[in-house]
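Sequence in, structure out.
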Amino acid sequence: MVPPKTADGQQLLAHTLTFQAPIYNLKQRDDHVVNGRGIEINGHGQYQENIYRPEVDENMPNPVKTAFEKDFRPTAIKIAGSSNEPWVNLGQNELQRIWSEVMPSDFKGHYKRFERAVNTSVEEILKKWRDSFGNKAIKALESIFQEQGLVDADKQNEYITQQTGTTNTISRRPYYFAGTDDKGKPAGSFQAYIVAATLSEHFRAIQGLPADHNYQPSGALILTIFAIEKTFDDHLRGKDKTDTRSVGDLLKDGNNPTVRKIKMLTGTSRTGQKLIPDDLWSKIIRTARSHNPLDPNVTEEEVEEDIDEFPI
């Protein structure tokens, strides 16, 4: 028997059960999704069942993989970066929607065929994406130490203590702000170098996607602040007591108490107002993108203007 094909040309698998004796009882468990079924009874006691399953590819052929890397990967990261729970992987419906929207027309109807490969790939992609914030925060802090000539460990720890503030509240860290206004008050919320440089890793990952002026990467900012807090804490602990777990590992269950506090920064006030208004998001994004050397769309003049922004 030659297995038939679907309307879009996919080869179907056929499974035939044939019994040559009277059937009094039959129990069978099959966890596969059944996309078609044919039952035939031929003569006394003969039973035949044809179960059709779409072909499943564990790996993507090169043309599919190329399109996946170019369009699907950055789109998945972009969506995760706008989530208020960036430690949660994208669901099946979301992945299928992305596939239908961004993959070339030749592949749009083949999501189920590559579903397993997509799931595996996206989980790994988002794990590396989360971890990249931690790596970038470390490099940004090292750059600050070098720029300010902070070689001595005590001087470095003193700098970190100044940046985290004396009130130990995560809602208003000094390192969030890029400068001060004409009254000496902190200004430029989430536009300081260490924040912008760390957040730039997200925009490097989604570079090449069409501009989206309504995009607000709250999840990416949550990961940025969490990565900086972890970097500061690890440095103060010293190498022997550093938490060797990555950002992704620390957040995988979503129950980290620090990230729950950070999440509130991107929420709303008691009166329902957004703590980060739309115009401030635009400035945060421009400043972060200015730290991506491959992004030619932001000028230094635009970034300088953003420092005048009042804090949240």
